[in-house]
């Protein structure tokens, strides 16, 4: 039996959308052609509840879940993840799906043992200057020690999580994708990025109904960075040279300069004091040569 077919039977495809979307039906049919055995979940923000108060219905062979009208795309994904039953969760954008070739590559990454697959981004390679949001994505990846991710983020679909990743970071964390990514890295999940072919990346106008304001995105990234540094220190585990800042809290212990460069009690020839004397000699020699020059 084909391994890809096995994954399809255990796959949940989650699509956040809103009540004014027009291309969801087309997207659902397109995804079902590529993944006929997958569980389809549509989380619709602003969907009017039914008269019998059933919040889950079925349309076009997909499970439709109602969400609040002001829910963002990441909040809709968290709701969809809660209802998903598959061992692999594929999160798509309401505007675009995945081509068949691209889908096979992404599923292959899961079969290779990766827990999280994000959409690769050519940060720094584009002709136009990246926006401030992409800089925020890139900065967080650098702090996480994954500069190779560029500006990839769980804020942007498509991406894949397996059941292990979902249980590790908890579906609620998907409401704040930056925090979810920090949790995934801290828990040691296997994360990779996979590009999308240009043919599958059709430029459609972004959906403002599910979009987050930039201020919210920056606030979420600040929260993620704060959580990341809590397990490290004020410098984020970055080296501090030869500085001994703790000595600044002691009064009358050492000279002020020794707070930053603690001088050893042993007068070594190559110690801090010796280097300072050599530098002083060089300065004096330059000054003497300057005086001897004819004006």
TrEMBL record:
Signal peptide: none annotated. Pfam families: Glycos_transf_2. Residues 264-295 are annotated as: Disordered. Residues 12-146 form the Glycosyltransferase 2-like domain. Coiled coil: none annotated. Residues 276-295 have a biased composition (Basic residues). Gene3D superfamilies: Spore Coat Polysaccharide Biosynthesis Protein SpsA, Chain A (3.90.550.10). InterPro entries: Glyco_trans_2-like (IPR001173), Nucleotide-diphossugar_trans (IPR029044). This is Glycosyltransferase 2-like domain-containing protein. The lineage of its organism: Bacteria, Bacillati, Bacillota, Bacilli, Bacillales.
């Amino acid at each position: 039996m084909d391994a890809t077919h096995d994954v399809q039977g255990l796959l949940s495809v989650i699509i956040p959308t809103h009540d004014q979307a027009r291309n969801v039906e087309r997207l659902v049919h397109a995804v079902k052609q590529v993944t006929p055995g997958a569980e389809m979940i549509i989380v619709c923000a602003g969907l009017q509840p039914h008269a019998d108060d059933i919040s889950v219905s079925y349309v076009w062979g997909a499970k439709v879940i109602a969400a609040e009208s002001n829910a963002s795309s990441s909040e809709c994904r968290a709701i969809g993840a809660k209802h998903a039953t598959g061992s692999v969760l594929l999160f798509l954008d309401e505007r675009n799906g995945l081509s068949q070739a691209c889908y096979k590559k992404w599923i292959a990454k899961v079969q290779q043992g990766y827990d999280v697959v994000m959409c690769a981004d050519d940060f720094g390679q584009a002709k136009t200057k990246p926006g401030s949001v992409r800089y925020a994505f890139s900065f967080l990846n650098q702090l996480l020690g994954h500069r190779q991710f560029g500006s990839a983020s769980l804020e942007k679909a498509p991406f894949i999580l397996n059941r292990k990743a979902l249980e590790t970071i908890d579906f609620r964390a998907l409401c704040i994708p930056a925090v979810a990514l920090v949790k995934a890295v801290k828990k040691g999940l296997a994360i990779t990025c996979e590009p999308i072919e240009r043919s599958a990346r059709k430029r459609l106008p972004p959906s403002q109904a599910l979009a987050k304001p930039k201020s919210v995105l920056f606030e979420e990234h600040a929260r993620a960075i704060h959580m990341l540094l809590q397990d490290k220190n004020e410098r984020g585990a970055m080296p501090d040279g030869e500085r001994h800042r703790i000595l600044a809290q002691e009064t009358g212990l050492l000279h002020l300069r020794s707070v930053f460069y603690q001088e050893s009690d042993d007068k070594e020839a190559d110690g801090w004091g010796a280097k300072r004397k050599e530098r002083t000699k060089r300065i004096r020699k330059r000054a003497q040569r300057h005086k001897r020059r004819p004006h």
